[in-house]
Amino acid sequence: MKKKKPLYEGKAKVIFDGPEAHTLVQYFKDDATAFNAQKKDVITGKGILNNYISEHIMLAARELGIPNHFISRVNDREQLVRKLEIIPVEVVVRNVAAGSICPRLGIEEGTMLNNTLVEFCLKNDSLGDPIIAPEHIFTFGWATPDELEIIVEDTLRINDFLTGLFLGIGVRLIDFKLEFGRYWTDGAVEIMLADEISPDNCRLWDAKTNEKMDKDRFRRDLGGLLEAYKEIARRLGVKIPQVN
Ligand code: ADP
Ligand code: UDP
Prior knowledge:
Oligomer: single chain
Helix content: 25-40%
Bound molecules: adenosine-5'-diphosphate, uridine-5'-diphosphate
Structural class: alpha+beta
């Protein structure tokens, strides 16, 4: 595909215009960031693994009728997606306590939650992605109540589907983050899942050992991030070209 000027460079991906109207290309970088990009590194091959793993999950989600932006994988690093108007809200789903909720609410990591918890954060790096309530989303017009209803419904379906998918390969889905957007065509609008689903934005623990198989390996300097992502891909049956 002919290279165009980047429209946007984020922490983990670069976004280019796609070949047709209403399309974009997502390029998966090897950059790893944590703690609002205060910690940074490059992990060669991470972008390729996330591209393939996210493709696998988005295709499976589409099979279940969960609308998402994925169209096709272009090469090892790029995928063609529908261009959405991103809703600036990060939807965080928690099945087990880990990460930021532990110090925030004084809960021990690994505590099973009585029910699935859906949290919302404003997608704004300069404010540190603060946690917000649905009322903030409506008050500031980031999404309407009808849109949020669809988002939460899709999110809970995605959680059920991902929990089963990962349990089937001996992995516990602890938590994850989703982004949604509006797909405008001919005056009609549809809410779709955007961005990526990969070990960069999910916490995944081995079901037998509770070993971390996600970006916490980088956040906490545990080492072995690439090996963990490769193991997730291998268990999912995702064929990855030689990485490293
Ligand atoms: P960040 O912006 O948080 O640093 P990334 O490096 O992953 O994150 O950049 C990808 C960007 O592309 C994100 O800001 C995300 O909201 C946006 N994005 C993802 N999917 C789409 C899409 N289908 N249409 C438009 N923007 C998208
Ligand atoms: N997450 C993410 N991007 C963010 C914030 C969180 O992908 O900007 C994911 C993170 O990988 C984890 C879940 O959302 O799977 C919950 O993250 P948490 O709020 O605990 O934040 P963190 O530990 O990243 O500070």
